[in-house]
Design brief:
The protein folds into three domains: 106 residues, Roll (Archaeosine Trna-guanine Transglycosylase, Chain: A, domain 4); 110 residues, RNA methyltransferase domain (HRMD) like (Transcription Regulator spoIIAA); 212 residues, Rossmann fold. Helices cover 31% and strands 26% of the residues.
């Protein structure tokens, strides 16, 4: 069982004002606690902007800010109060002087009123939130005897905006994308190190995003330092995988776990094509489930080397499940010319729309790729198609693009299932921008 050993150290508590300690109910619990903190700046929101953040959106963008009260002005990483137009606090968070997100809200006023123990204390709050994340995964059966690769902390979904942690066996891989995460690196690693079963922490900062956070002088040798590298062996749905700790993202796409589980129920007796297969997650799942033949296609030689190792690791026949290094578009065009068809095609391309401003051009790429995929599916066959672009998922136009792709291919499609990321990737409904993965299962006629 995964659990946080909270007895490993005595947590330093915030000294609470006497009225709160005695159980009194002040007009503003956060205001009273803040009164004991000298030099605490106040970020005052513009009129009409308060409700969005009072409702729970954690990302206070600079355009919502009217003024900042405090001398000297706050620095990146400082704790600040976030207040409405009357300067009454609605919550507190972490400030950034250069980012488009000026504050990442950590707690709201009503939460402090209910439980003031973590107010304006980032160390305490970190430990509490990580403990909550551990318990949430445990309640969903993670880890289990069949699966020990999963997401432990999903940024805004676990109310730690900018922090992602994936667990691969006894390794926790941290993906940092906020300046505050870098500031509290030692505290985060300390908390992760106390989780039962975790023996190593691998730190993988998102350097380009952190530059936008104002961290321009990071020493990459330092931020990439770790007590482990290479590969680690994990299990997902009973299948073994080698995860590269230097691979894409955190090394393994745990978000597709439940979608791969679906593939295991629809692959038997089919010829399966896995386009953009990476290290073979969908491919091996289909092969184990009884596919008569599986072919994975990817343009990355290191990914395919790992995929072939995964075939051998599971004792599978390399003639049953094989891989080819080729561009996805070129491969599907050639297959269409040869009139080669598959009963099930999986299309999981990389992020084509990293930002909303390129959504239009990315839509054309998604349309083209899906049209080609539909052309090489036998009538009545299945297509599982994906987009990991948040801009695409949030736009709500993915199904329209698939319908347009079907028209281009001269095929008729029926939607059988729409899904997103696995349940260990929670989304805060107050921050819908956390939704990024679209997974659609189609029948193609």
């Amino acid at each position: 069982m995964l659990k946080l050993n909270l007895q490993a150290r005595v947590v330093k508590s915030l000294a609470l004002p006497a009225s709160i300690a005695a159980g009194a109910a002040p007009a503003s619990a956060l205001e009273e606690i803040a009164s004991s903190r000298k030099g605490l700046a106040r970020v005052v929101l513009k009129k009409g902007k308060t409700q969005l953040f009072r409702d729970g959106n954690p990302m206070v963008y600079s355009g919502a800010v009217d003024r900042i009260i405090g001398r000297p002005p706050p620095k990146t990483g400082d704790l600040v109060l976030v207040a409405d137009g009357s300067e009454k606090p609605i919550g507190w968070g972490l400030y950034n002087s250069v980012s488009m997100f000026c504050v990442r809200l950590m707690q709201l006023e009503e939460e402090v009123a209910r439980d003031p123990r973590h107010a304006l204390n980032m160390e305490n709050l970190l430990e509490a939130r990580i403990c909550e994340a551990v318990e949430l995964r445990r309640s969903m059966g993670l880890p289990s005897k069949d699966t020990n690769a999963f997401r432990l902390i999903n940024s805004e979904g676990d109310r730690l905006s900018g922090l992602i942690v994936d667990v691969f066996g006894n390794v926790a891989v941290v993906a940092s994308s906020a300046a505050w995460v870098e500031k509290y690196r030692e505290e985060i690693e300390l908390c992760l190190g106390k989780i039962q079963g975790i023996e190593h922490v691998r730190w993988r900062p998102s350097v380009d995003i952190l530059k936008e956070e104002g961290l321009n002088n990071l020493d990459e040798r330092d931020i990439l330092s770790s007590n482990i590298s290479g590969t680690v062996k994990v299990k997902e749905n009973g299948i073994q995988f080698l995860v590269s700790l230097e691979g894409q993202k955190t090394g393994f796409y745990a978000d597709q776990r439940e979608n791969r589980q679906l593939i295991s129920s629809i692959s038997e007796g089919k010829r399966v094509l896995d386009v953009c297969c990476y290290s073979g997650g969908f491919s091996l799942t289909a092969a184990k489930a009884g596919a008569v033949n599986v072919l994975g296609v990817d343009s990355s030689a290191p990914a395919l080397e790992l995929a072939r190792e995964n075939v051998l690791l599971n004792g599978m026949d390399p003639n049953l499940v094989s891989f080819v290094k080729e561009d996805a578009t070129a491969f599907m065009k050639e297959a269409a010319l040869r009139k080669e068809y598959w009963g099930l095609v999986i299309l999981d391309p990389p992020k084509l729309a990293p930002k909303r401003k390129v959504l239009h051009s990315a839509s054309g790429m998604y349309r083209s790729l899906n049209s080609l995929a539909m052309k090489i599916i036998k009538p009545g066959g299945l297509l599982m198609t994906c987009s990991c672009s948040g801009a695409m998922t949030q736009s709500g136009i993915f199904l329209n693009i698939l319908q347009s792709a079907a028209a281009m291919a001269g095929r008729k499609i029926t939607v059988l299932r729409e899904a997103g990321a696995a349940c260990d990737h929670p989304i805060d409904p107050a921050y819908r921008e956390g939704a990024y993965l679209s997974n659609v299962l189609l029948r193609v006629q």
